[in-house]
């Protein structure tokens, strides 16, 4: 069932649990993610990034597909715009029916980040996530090893009015190995200082026990993309290595199933 992001995240935040937020590239991702959530019997968030919007040539088709998959689900499913840098895209997502947006002005100077993000919060009226401390692996914009300062994070939330904050605590985007070393002490400090749910980006690089500990330390929304893409691609390769088919359904269906299996497992790790 399509559910407001705020409702899913608020419930998890209050209970000290984690919520899995998984990135969608094509409709098979959305279907697999929701199938995994239904297997686990747990809420989930479907995320569409600005990069994916550009890949599809626009938000309308992939956004409508995600919303349709969410409406048909037997568990709560939210739909979220991820890492949007363009205000017009944010407005389009809200008009389409997305329950939340992540507005990313982290490449801008602090004062510009605050002003732009506060304006998005004021204009959209939906749940807004933002980023202050840089998270590694974003084309040189986010410096590896960056860390979010708790006092600055608290001031940023107060100045912008955002509903969730992505923080830098040791992860990096697009990691192919699961060996990121998280700063759990910093997570706890941020949780104590910041009055809104914390978001962990780059979570594909974190092992299961690290994800569990991150949630225990204070993380709520856990973003995962690359890990699912690895599972999806590995299954496509496996099928095509043994089959000369030209029918995409022959390899996309097992790839979709592989995504669902990973989502079900990860949601249980985070819960």
The order of strands across the largest sheet is 1-2-3-4-5-6-7-8
- Average of pLDDT: 91
CATH class: Alpha Beta
Q: Please indicate the count of domains.
A: 1
| Low-pLDDT stretches | 135-143
Structural class: alpha/beta
> How many β-strands, per DSSP?
8
Oligomer, anyone? single chain
Question: What is the CATH architecture assignment?
Answer: Alpha-Beta Barrel
N→C terminal distance = 19 Å
How would you describe the shape? globular
CATH topology: TIM Barrel
Helices and strands, in order, run as HEHEHHEHEHEHEHEHEHH
Helix % is 40-55%
Radius of gyration from the alpha-carbon trace, in angstroms: 18 Å
CATH superfamily, called what?
Answer: Aldolase class I
Approximately how much beta-strand content do the residues carry? 5-15%
Largest sheet: number of strands, sense, barrel closure:
8 strands, parallel, barrel
Number of helical stretches of at least 4 residues: 11
Pfam family, one: F_bP_aldolase
GO biological process, one term: carbohydrate metabolic process
GO molecular function, one term: aldehyde-lyase activity
Cofactor: Zn(2+)
């Amino acid at each position: 069932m399509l559910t407001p992001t705020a409702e899913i995240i608020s419930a998890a935040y209050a209970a000290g649990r984690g919520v899995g937020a998984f990135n969608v590239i094509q409709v098979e991702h959305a279907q697999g993610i929701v199938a995994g959530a239904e297997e686990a019997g747990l809420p989930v968030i479907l995320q569409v990034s600005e990069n994916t919007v550009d890949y599809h040539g626009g938000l309308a088709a992939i956004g409508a597909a995600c919303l349709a998959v969410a409406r048909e689900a037997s568990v709560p499913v939210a739909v979220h715009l991820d890492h949007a840098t363009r205000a017009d895209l944010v407005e389009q997502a809200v008009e389409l029916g997305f329950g939340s947006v992540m507005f990313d002005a982290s490449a801008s100077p602090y004062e510009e980040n605050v002003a732009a993000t506060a304006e998005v919060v004021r204009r959209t009226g939906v749940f807004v996530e933002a980023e202050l401390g840089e998270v590694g692996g974003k084309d040189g914009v986010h410096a590896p090893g960056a860390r979010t300062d708790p006092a600055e994070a608290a001031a940023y939330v107060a100045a912008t009015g955002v509903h969730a904050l992505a923080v830098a605590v040791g992860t990096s985007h697009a990691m192919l190995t699961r060996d990121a070393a998280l700063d759990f002490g910093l997570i706890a400090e941020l949780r104590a200082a910041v009055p809104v749910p914390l978001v962990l980006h780059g979570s594909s690089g974190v092992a299961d026990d690290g994800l569990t500990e991150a949630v225990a330390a204070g993380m709520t929304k856990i973003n995962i993309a690359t890990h699912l893409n690895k599972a999806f691609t590995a299954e496509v390769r496996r099928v095509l290595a043994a089959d000369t088919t030209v029918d995409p359904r022959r390899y996309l269906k097992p790839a979709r199933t592989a995504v669902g299996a990973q989502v079900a497992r990860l949601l249980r790790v985070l819960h």
